[in-house]
Amino acid sequence: MFLAILAGFLLAFAAPLLHRWLGKWVLVPMALLPLSIFVYLLTLSPAVLGGDKLGELHAWAPSLNINLHFFLDGLSLLFALLITGFGTLIMLYAGGYLKGHPLLGRFYLYLTLFMTAMLGLVLAGNIISIFVFWELTSISSYLLIGFNQDKEKSRNSALQALLVTGLGGMALMGGLILLGMAGGSYTLSELLERGDVVRNHGLYLPALVLLLLGAFTKSAQFPFHFWLPNAMEAPTPVSAYLHSATMVKAGVYLLARLTPVMGGTDEWQYTLMMVGGITTVLGALLATQHVDLKAILAYTTISALGLLVTMTGIGTAPAMEAMVVFLLAHALYKGTLFLVAGNVDHATGTRDLTQLTGLSGSMRYTAVAALLAGMSMAGILPFFGFIGKELLYEASLQESPFRWMLFAVSFFSGMVFVAVAIALSYGVFWRRSTSPTPLQHPDKPLLYLPPVVLASAGLVFGLLPGFFVTPLLRRAAESMLGVEQVFELALWHGFTLALGLSVLTVLLGYVVYRYANRLLSYASRFNRLYLFGPANLYQLTLKGFLIGATKITATIQNGYLRSYIVAIVTAQISLVILALWDGGPRLELGNRLHELSQLRLYEVVLLLMVVSALIFLFKSQSRLTSIAIMGIVGYSAALLYILFGAPDVAATQLLIETLTVVIFVLILHKLPAFKYLSHASERYKYVLLSLTFGAVMTYVILIVKQYPLDSELKAYYGLNSYLLAHGRNIVNVILVDFRAFDTLGEIVVLAVAAIGIMAMLKLRMQKGDKP
Amino acid sequence: MKTIVLATAIRILIPLFIIFSVYTLFRGHNHPGGGFIGGLIGSIAFVFHTMTHGPQHTVDTFLKLNLYGYPRQPNQSRSLYLMRMMRVNVWRRRKMARHPDMKHHMVRIESVYIIATGLFLAVTSGVLGLLSGQPFMHAYWTDFYIPVLGKPGTPILFDLGVYLLVIGVVLKITFVMSEE
């Protein structure tokens, strides 16, 4: 498994190079990778279907309990197969969709990077590595949405998706760490067995809130749903792959994965059911308000994600069963429909539902795929979507205080799904029309084969549910429930209530389709409501954030060196006083006064020199004098160091003083004339501040000297600097050997400072220039 | 600021400064001194030179390399060509300067290059330990002893990196401040 991930990353970064070498044939290696991983996973599947849980451990940062741990059970396998199987088709499709695009190599880089990250996410067995891969998917999604970088809308949407999912990712990190603390482990397989410990832990609630935030932003749940429709700016292969079949399901995956650990409590159940329910209804409602094919699909995806979350929230065995079945069915038909929409867009140049008619004649295969997928979406009998819908109804109709509400939610969304399915497959392709939309180019095999394959998978799974799908889904449901599942999927359940409801859904859905135009005409009336929607809130927050940042920067970074120093010094004084105010050590000078008699003459002379120099500095009328006086102070300090036996420090101080004076002299003639512009009181204010600072520091040092220095460090360095480090100068040995890493950091800072000075003084940018 | 006394003195003093700075660098392990102090001493020499002669002159005098060379013949082997170029530039400079076929290139040593070299040396001394499975910054010492310079080891390499970096940084700051 590790090799698969590694190969993915390697191939991803080789993609631009391969594109240069192979031209349009770059799609062959790019599609072979997911295909081979798919086959590899299939070879592992007998073991997993037999009930095994495969693990693979690679040490990463063992001291922090973070390991690259892979973990394959039913749920992971379901997702991994979906990611790689669908990935293979998408790679082929992208080759056709972006044929001749100069940046095809880069596109494959991002797409493969995403695929690998997503694969890592579902295979990860350590919650920290889950987070790492989670963030990688967010970043690659950002790159993919912004692929058409020359369009401003595309860039904004990408940033929006990144901000929303990135903030969610941060919350997720907090949640995962809290979860790790509560469960006492970062390893998934251990956490899965400690569900009771976690649920009764005091950190459960904060962890839950943060985790849900992460999952909801990723899976576009209300009120974070707004980024998903905007993400449709991405090229269609991306929309199909990331924003309908895989990435947006990462949140659902996380919820499903953590159900045995965190699920089952009231908070979990009610939050998921409520948020999921609202999202379902909202997504379905908004889907009827649009005419853009991709927007409609995006909103129905949001609705479907809401249903998945709701089902996870219910948490009973039938609900979980319904969730996994619907997840697979949705990925198959929604992916197909996205590909079909991209295909139509590519061939006709428009995605407007009202302009597209009668395409079945000119795009025969695409039309077939659309028909198959549409029937699966609508839940017509022999398709896999039908089984999913039946199970959804059964699950929501179970005994529970909310059964009617849950049923209404799934019924409403089902109705809209039917209407959308009819509009997309029948309305665009098969409805008779005297003037079919003209094509710009004929249907291409690379563009119609993937959707046809996907859609037929929906049909095959529906006809033969027992073949491979049932055992896989059983194991997937088992991962969430912790108990082995024995359900059987069958097309025909007899004349049950669910069947009747299915028929009713289709009929009502058809009615919605017939009156869709009237629904659309109401669309403009909602505009005012959108002003209060989360999308607008996001814009306002973003704008406010920028304005606030500008204001704060203007206040704090005002460019006057003196105000920075005043801020630093004041902060330090207040912190020290705060620390000494209450319960701090008190200064006792009484029995130390006799130490004054030990004062040497030259120490007094130095002190007098510094003090008189400072007084003189205050009165000085020229810059040169001031610099020279500062030099005197510095040299006196160096002399003090020599007197107290620190030659290294003294030498450094002397040299630095010299250099400071010389460099000051170098730039002296460029400075404006030396004048006192401020009022004298202004100066006394600074003098007062300096005196306070000096007094506080003196006080602190006197207190420090009050206690005997009892440290083993001195003895340690004294003993070891010659024996271990072959040097007799302890200061230097500490600098270059014992604590060389600190020195390295310091010299890096020095180098960066030099570059910064150069940038500040040398590079005068013209306004509007790019840096 | 051109004063004849300082200008003449500094020309004689610079080699002394540099020798003394290198001496300080190497004695640092056992006596007061070290890369930082050595670097400061070395850079002060150049700073004074800049102060008296101007930055352009300092660069021309100390930080420019004349490289001699001729284009490689089509059938000449690359390694042979490289070795010949090295010989031309190292051992036979005087003679080659007057050769008619020779073209010479001026290479200006930017102070940023010195900074980069210093950082590179410092990091290398740390990575050496890492490569042989020890922790980062693990120190290696040789068994022999060189008079004046002391015992060679990776901390000395690190100190040399600090020395070069400090010189580079001070030179950069001085040039930036005094040019314009």
From TrEMBL, chain B:
It is a multi-pass membrane protein. Its main location: membrane. Signal peptide: none annotated. It is found in: Cell membrane. It holds the Pfam family MnhB. The chain crosses the membrane at residues 6-26, 112-136, 156-177. Residues 5-66, 98-171 form the Na+/H+ antiporter MnhB subunit-related protein domain. InterPro entries: CPA3_antiporter_subunitB, MnhB. The keyword Zinc-finger does not apply. It comes from the Bacteria. Keywords: Cell membrane, Membrane, Transmembrane, Transmembrane helix. Belongs to the CPA3 antiporters (TC 2.A.63) subunit B family. This is Na(+)/H(+) antiporter subunit B. It comes from Pontibacter amylolyticus.
